[in-house]
Structures are given as C-alpha cells and as structure tokens.
Amino acid sequence: MRVIELWYAILAFTLIVYLMLDGRNFGVGAIQRAVAKTPAERRQLALALGPLWPWHEVWLVVLGGSLFVAFPRVLAVSFTGYYLALYLVLWSLILRGMALEVGGHVEQPLWQEFWDFVFAASSVLLAILFGAALGNIARGVPVGDSGQFQMPFFTNFRTRGQVGLLDWYTVSMAIFTLLALSAHGATYLTLKTEGPVCERSRRLAKKLWILFCPALAVVFAETWFVRPHLPYAIASRPLAIAAVLIAIAGAAAIFHGFRQDLSGFAFIGSWMLLAGLLVASAAAMFPTMLRSTLGDRNSLTAYNSAAGANGLKIAAIWWPVAVALSLGYSLYILRLFRGKVPADR
Amino acid sequence: MSDPAFWHRIQFAFTVIYHYLFPQLTMGLIGFIVFWKYKALRSGNPRYATAARFWTKIFGLNFAIGVVTGIPMEFQFGSNWAAFTRYSGEIIGQTLAMEGMFAFFLESAMIIALVFGEKRLSPKNHFLVSLGVAIGSWASAYFILTTNAFMQHPTGYAVGTDGLLHLQSFGQFLFNPWATVEFFHNQAASLVTGAFVVTSLGAFYMLGIRHHDQARLYLKYGAAVGLLASVLVAFPTGDRQAKMVARYQEVSLAAMEGRFQSGPEAELVLIGQPDVQNRKLDNPIIIPEALSFLAYGTFHGNVRGLGAFPQNVWPGNIELLYYSFHIMAGLGTVFIIVMGLAVLYLLLGRLESSRFLLWVLMLAFPFPYIANTAGWMTTELGRQPWLIYGLFRTEQGYSHAATPGSTIFTLIGFCGLYLVLGFLFFYLIEREIEEGPEDAGD
Q1: What number is the ipTM of this complex?
Q2: CATH class of the domain comprising A2-336
C-alpha cells in the first residue's frame, strides 16, 4: 500500500526535522560553558537561540501525534517499553523550557546562574537521551512473542538478546550524537552571534567537526557489526545513496564555509550533513520501525503496525496543508527577528 | 491500591488537572487582550494598550507553564494507555495530531510576535497577531474536546475485523454533536476564569489605591464579561450539556444526582450526601420535579435511577462524581449572583466605593478554577467505567508492560516537579502584580 510508505516518510521527515531544529538548541546548551564565559555572554546565547524554540518543540508534539494516527501500535509498544527513559526526556524538556522561559525574567545574578546551569545540564541530558534512543532504534529492542517489551536501563554490555537501554553501542551513539549536535550548535552560533562568543564558537566548531570525522567512521563500523543489514541497505537503495551524497556535499560546505568565513554556508552544510545521514538511515531501515533483538518475526514494521487505510488517507490530506501553514508562520517570525544578537545588550 | 489501573488513572488525572489550570486562564484572557487591542486601535487611548500589554505578560507566564505541562499529556497516551492507543489511535490520533499541527504551530509562532513584537510591528499587525494567538488557543481546545467527545459519545467509527477502531466518517467524527456542546460550555467556562482573574486584580488595585485607571478598566470589563460568561455557562451551554448526558449517558446522570430510584417528576437535589451502600441520599434538600424538566423539558419526564441499571455499568466513584457535579453547579450559580451584583453596582456607579463587594471580587478568583476542575471531574468520572463510552472499558486500556512500580515512580516525579513549577509560577506572578501595569492615564 502506497499510503503506508508515504506515512513512513512523513514520520521520518518529522523526526529528522525535530532532531535538527531542537538538536541545534541542545547543542548550544551543551557547549554553553565552553563558549560563554560571563553571565552577559550566556544571556546572549539564550537570545541567540531565537524566539522560535517553542515552535521547535511543537515538532516533537507533531511527531507524537503523527505516530499516534499512523502507527498507533509503534507508539503503544515503544513508549511503554521505553517508559522511564521517556519520562526522563519529558522532565528534561520541562526543565529546559522553564530555564529558557524564566531565566531572563529576573535581573538577579544567582537566579540567572541557576537557570543557565539548568539549561546546560538539561540540554546535555537531552542530547544523550535522544542519541541513545537513535542507538536503540538501530540496534533493536527486545520485543517478545507477546508483541511488547519492557526494557531496563541496563542488562549487560552485549547488543543481542535481552538488551537494555544502554550498552556499548547505544552509549557510543549517545556520545556521537552529543558531539554532532554540539558541532551543529557551535556552527549556528557563528552565524547568529557577534563578538567573543562568535569567535570561541568558530574555534570550537572547527575542532568538533574535525573530531566528527573519525567518530562517524567508528559509529559506522559499530553499526556494521551490530546490524550488518543497514550498511548494505544504504549502498543498495537509491534514496539512501542520494542522502549520503547530500551529506558529503554538506561536509564540503562546512569545510568551505569555515575556510572562507561564510557562517551561513557552514550552517547549511551542517544541516545537509546531519539530515543526510539521518535520511540515509531511515531509508535503509524501511520498513522496519522497531526491530526485535529476539527474532525478526517480532519486529514492528510499517506494514504490520499501520492504522487503517481510510484514516491514513484522510490524515495524509490535512497533514501537508498544516505543515505548509506552519512554515509560513515560522518564516514570518524569523523575518521579524532576523539579524545577529550583539555581544553587549 | 494494588490495582495498576488505579495508578495510571491517578497519574493522568493529576497531570491533566494541573495542566488545565493554565490553559483555562489563557483561553479566557486572550479574549480580553484581543478586545483591548481592538479598542486601542480604534480609539487610540493608551489605557487600552497598557491593559493589553500588562495582561500579555500574565498570559505569557501562564502560557509557558501550560506548554511545558502539556507536552507530557500526549506522550502519556502511549506510555500509560498503550492498549487504548492501539485500539483507537486511527481515530483519536487524528485530532491529537491536528491540535499540534493546526493550533500549536500557529499559537507558538504568534505568541512570540505578541510578546516581543510590539515595537517591530504596526499596531494593526500586532492586533492581528493577538487574534492569531486567540484562534490558535481556541482551535486547540476544539481538537482536544473533539477527542474527549469521541470518548464520551463515539461517532464516525467502525469496528474492524482486527478488533480495532477504524475511521468511517471523518465529518461525523470531527463534528460530533457532543463536541459542539462541550466546546461552547468549556470555552464559556474559561472566559469565566479569565473574567474573575481580571476583576480580582482590578479589585486588588482598587482596594490598595494603586493603578486606579487600570483598575477601573479591569473591574468594568471583568464584571461585564464575567456576568455574560457565567450566564452562558449555565444557559444555554450547560443546559444542553445536561440534556446530552440525559440522552446518551443516563446512568451517569443518575449518579451525578445521587438518584437511586426511577420515576417521573424527578426532584433536583441541591444538597445531600449519597449513601451508595444503602442506596439512598442523606439530608437532602430538593426542588420537586426540576430534574425531569432540566433533563427532558417536561415536569413528567421519567428519570431512571441507578437501580434501573446493572451495577457493572455504574460509574466507579459515585460519591466523588456526585460532589463534583454539585460543586460545579453550585459555584456556577454563585458566579451569576456575584457578577450580577458587580454589574448592578457598576451601573449605579457605586462599585468603586463598595469595599465589601470589592473584597468579595478580589477573593473570588480561585473559585472558577475549582468549578472548572469539578466540571471536568464530572465529565470524566461520569464516563466511567468506560474509556470510550459503550465500547471500551477503562480497565482494558492501560499499559500492562508498565508496572505500578514504574507508574508510582513517575507520579512522584511529577508531584515534585510540578510543586516546584507552582512555587516558581506564584513567585513570578507576584512580581508582575507588584510591578503592575505602567500607568498611562493616571
């Protein structure tokens, strides 16, 4: 059924857009201590995130809602299985949101120091949790014959059988994600700030992107070992190959952007690189959505988890309309608040 | 207490009740903000712009807490109510996703322009932005209430051969008659909360002899909207809601009224304590025949009591349901009286000098919150023992893989986190009230 494939693409699109948009904010939070040394600089950082972060977070709500309507079984099985990890994400999001909302509300040094810390800590935690989640999607989860799973944080360090949330593979994916988002966030800051913060971000971004290359090779080799099917699927599916090419072009754009001091160019390159890798992974995984480590017959696929055709078709009509409207609002806001955030406010 | 469903229900109830304390105010306040921005645009009088600017700050704080406490709700369907999600996802997922996509996107973008954009936008565009926020927040309510309406009175569905619900008619689902009635009733109630809060702050400034000109404005429009909305909550919207319940959830109506025996010329209970074990009502004060009239429009209508239904379809907690309903209805009546008096004194030009009434108005602001919460408890307890009325029972719906141990852990986490949020909220609101609106007209 074509409509199921469409919905798999919509879900992948939503997840990737959310990770790229909010991941940028996580990255900025993660490098906060490294690039902003004074309270005023940390304020500059918060302002540089821009006013649109609630709009970014709505993409997560949209992801939940779209999963709900299109693949209710995946939502039901995965959120119950990831129970505690999911709540850690939700609580971290609450703290992150409060830090951004109320941090600038009171002109008091201790108040701001506290919320700056909460913002940084929750951002690091969110980057790690989402990274571990991506690792879990790639590795698989122990879906049993009952069609459900329940996963502790840790069972053992092996990646097969009764796995937990964390093992050597998912931990290295979490660290890799933190690194990638930090590089993405630092690149964004070179575009959106001026003064010392911009200078430090530029230096940090260069170092992080250089680190990124060997880290990507390591993660790729690990994935080859944990789920050998994925690298082959990337090499054999045209969409995945195209996405890899976009990622390579993005890497070149980052390199060029930093050499020629074109921060906008570098940031677009950062988007292309990370989104390209995510698209390639999503294309390679299709149709599996939640792979079972206890045997492929238990895996949740787009075909065995989709809602009925009528519901999918109707939702496929209003979904693009809503996204188009939403992009309109966000462009309006971005235009209203365009420009760099100066160092001294 | 060892029943897993109990803990899933407590967690959902706690998080949703807490969450809804904030949207009920923002949905009401945005009406005032739009109205004052319109007046400012039309008259050019700075007092309206000042009022809109001040209440936008209060709105922003409430909106922020509403957002951060709202996001968990959607995910709790999957984590704690997995079986329900799977059974009905194709249908209720539609409106839950539409809420995010049509309402939140709009609201989250426009609120930025409303709070930070006044200097960058023309007055007319800034007014349109406030209208955008209003449309976003009220649309969000419609989508959520449509979801709830499906659970109260399912329409537009078919049960498939796989045993799951499938969408049959999108139109019947989206324009469920229950949703229409619930929407107007709920939105009128949110205007009541907004009006009482605005009036309360007006009375506070008036009594404290501060920001006189603004206080006068808040009292005038707060009381006028308060009276109008309080009347609308009762009639026609509350009346229509009650007739819906009488028609589609007869057993809930019986439980709400603590009515055990059936019969025509049914009496309306004002006060009394239900004794479920002995199937009677203690110390009742009643109005004869009124319930028959309210439910069916005739004094002879036969209102069936709980005894007419098998016990396995009785709502699980009849006492709490009974009190929720009576607290809501009782407070609703008091609101009409209080706001009616305020409007009367306003018309006589004596409100500002009537210290007693100002004290009452100042202290009244918590009660709409209580009434709104009690109203929602009536709706949700009255739906029991069903998750989707007549189709799917509550004990079928929760996640079996999530143990009570996990649920209690996350419930405790929410209690702690939301307590901190509450303190934070009061501290920040207190600062705003202390600082007050800048006085343009004084």
Answers
A1: 0.90
A2: mainly alpha
